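Our preliminary data section would be incomplete without showing what the modeling component actually yields. Below, a chain of 254 amino acids is followed by its predicted structure, encoded as C-alpha cells that our downstream tools consume directly.
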Amino acid sequence: WKSTDNGFTWNYIMPNGLPDAPPTCLEFDSAHERLILGSMRIYGSSIGGGLWYSTDQGLNWTLFGTDTTRAGIDTLGIFSMIIKQDTFFIGTAKGIFKSTDNGIRWSFTGLSNIGILSLAINDNGHIFAGTGSGGFGCYRSTDNGLTWSLKLDLGENHRVFITIANSGTIFVADLDQDGIYRSTDNGDSWQSVNNGLLTDLPNGKNVRLVAINSAGTLFAGTTTDGIFKSTDNGDNWTEIGVPTKIKTIITKNN
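Predicted structure:
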C-alpha cells in the first residue's frame, strides 16, 4: 500500500515481480532512490523468501543479484535489514548475510543457524543483532560484521528487538517475559528498566519494540496491554492508550 498525502489515504499497489510471500521488512535506500523489501514464507517444513528492490515507488520489483551471486538468500526467510552506504546487512532465519557492492554479491557473515529478528547500527558503525530461534539475546560486531560477541544473554530462543537512540543509548525489547533492557556504554553492560510495565501480564513483560520520538520520549509496544511511555530514558513507564496487541510504532516529530 502507498500513501502520497502523509498517510491520510492509502492506495493498493499491484506489484509486478514480487512473489506471493509476506513482506517482513521495508527500507528506503536514499543513496540510490529505491525501496528495498525483504520477505519470508514457510512452505511446510522449509522456509523461503528473498530481497527485492524497486526504483519506481513500488510498481515493479527486481530480485537482488543472480543465481550465482545471491549466496542462497532467496531461499531464506529475511527478518531484518540495515543499509550502511553501499553495504547491506540482512538478518535471516539462518544468520546474517552481507553485500558490499550494492546488493549484487552476497556472503554469509556470522551467527550461523540463528534467527536474526532485528539489526541496528550506531554512529560508531557498530552493529547489533537481536536474535530469535537458536540465539541467546543481543550480539555486537565492531568490525563490520566479521566477528560477533554475545553482549546480553537472555537465554536460548528469546525473541529480541533492538532500538538505538540518537544519544547512543541502546534498548532491547524482549518478547519473552524479560521486558526492556538499556545500555549506555555501547552494549558492554545492561540494566533492566521495567518500572511501571505491568508485572501481571499473562506471559510476563512481553515487549515487542521500543520507538523514540525527536524529543527522546520512549514508547514500548506490548503483546497484550498496548503502549507504555517513558519520558526519563526508560527509568519509569506509564500506560497510554487502550490495551491491545502492538506490532509496530512509528513517531513523527513529537
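Residues 3 and 32 are 21 Å apart (CA to CA). The longest strand covers residues 34-43. Preliminary results of this kind motivate Aim 1 of the renewal.
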